[in-house]
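Handout, page 2. Input:
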Amino acid sequence: MFESLTERLNQVFKQLRGQGFLTEADVRDGLRQIRLALLAADVHYQAVRDFLAHVESEATGKRVLESLSPGQQLLAVVRESMIELMGGERKALQLSGRPAVVFLVGPAGGGKTTTAGKLAKNLSKRGRKVLLLCADPHRPAAADQLSSLADKIGVEFASACQDPVREASKAVHETQRTLHDTVIVDTAGVPPGETPEPLLKELVQALRPADLLLVLDALVGQEAAGIAETFLPLGVTGVVLSKLDGDARGGAALSLPMRSQRPIVFVGTGENPDDLEAFHPQRMADRILGLGDLQGLAEQLEQAGVKQVDKTRVRQGALTLEDFLEQLEAMNQAGPVSQFLSRIPGIKQQDVDDPEVESELKRARAVIQSMTLEERRNPNIIGASRKRRIARGSGTTVQEVNRLLSQYEEARRLARTLGRQRTPPGMGKLSSR
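Output:
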């Protein structure tokens, strides 16, 4: 996501970091390049103006110009300002009431029904008993689609499509008997250019949702802010950006919080029921600036069942091929490797999307699986004859076995080096949140 913006911003900071010191003219030129990058990313011009005004007020003082690493310090200032632009702190659902009613509204085609299913899966994994409720009287296939998603996810479904206000109220009341503690209501989409119909207002008044989420397609860019304005009178409490994985620019994510004064709560990152992520402004700023999202990566790997390797062993370079295989197996079960790699600092999106990456990891798994337990734990014993046997067993070549062993040794050396390194000068602020 946001590949074009990340690439342009990386070019700006690479140039600035290459200079030993910065003048106010250098900073102004850098900010002009950042402004062009944001406008090209379809960020609303008022959001760009306010963002750069804040950065300039911070960046032209002593903090940046007289620091030992002005390029790094300017990056820290931009990061802080970008976090504020996207809402500052993570905002969670309120989920108050018994049951907690979560109401989804939005324009037609924005992904509400799919988001309802993803949200049901997300809350179910957190231990909540969810009822998916369809209150869309206009789209004939709406109830069937949501019912199918409910079956796939393993939650209950109810329809309120004939008389939405009466039937939805009854379904919510029935949860006292069925012990559902959360009701997610999928509503009719609003056609482009039109305002929400009175039925939506009646449903909101009848159900009194704890959370009223506006679902918007991230691909609409800065237009998302204008679309949001038509829904705010309903009492919108937060925004879900769907299809963020297909957004190479980032206009919606960077424009909406400031323009609508509503937080982004979740983002859709794929087509599967699990592809819904909590929106963290700090982590998103890091990803946009090419700094990765290692905290998010750790959480994703933990959810996937990938065990955390002992840090002391990492620093000592004591990781084995058995450790590596265990991580690969868990990642393989969790989904596309690209979802993990995209969070690692320095890895470009085009490298992540390269199908050869997935193929290479499959071959690596096959090679390690063809080794004995002793060979995995002590690769130094692998000589020529063992390599030929491993290559035959894995359907690869001796050259590929050699390459894996070389990569493994390089990774061990890198782990030892990184374990001894301190935070680079001027980057302390980057870990302040």
